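Entry 14. Ran structure prediction on the chain below.
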Amino acid sequence: MSNHITQLQCHKSNRNLKSTHNPHMDWNTMKAITAKLKKNDAIVTSADKGNTIVILPSTLYQQKIQEFVDKNNFRTSNTNPTKTFQKQIRKTINKRPKLINSNAKWKYINLNPSAPTIRSLVKLHKPDLPIRPVVNWCNAPAYKLAKLFTQKIQLLTPLPYTFNIRN
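Output, structure tokens:
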């Protein structure tokens, strides 16, 4: 394991706290940890497997994400296509009243869309500590619409096996 990375075992919180528990001490501990992370330009992220967290320098984290992007031949864009995509979705929903009821179309349009964000989980069980990317699509323009279509497809074409992936 790299000397830049410290692995800590997470412990489940004890819900039966004693009456002597001092939340002020927890707050001070969190402030001290945050200050130390900021001072050393480090971040805390989850490991890919197991109930562990990983502390690593921000530059190493960014470098691992950049390596993943470069290795997988992603293309970068100088413009943000989110607004254009949102306009296309609105236009399509308005043109197809049979697909989505006009009274309910507002439910499937994301009012304040943004481009999906990426974070990564470090694979501690592999050499060179590669990452597993996790993309948050919840604020993407088509997220609610994709969720609706997934539900409709599941209703129209029930899968014969109960252990199939849902989406």
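The CA atoms of residues 120 and 133 lie 4 Å apart. Will compare against last week's run tomorrow.
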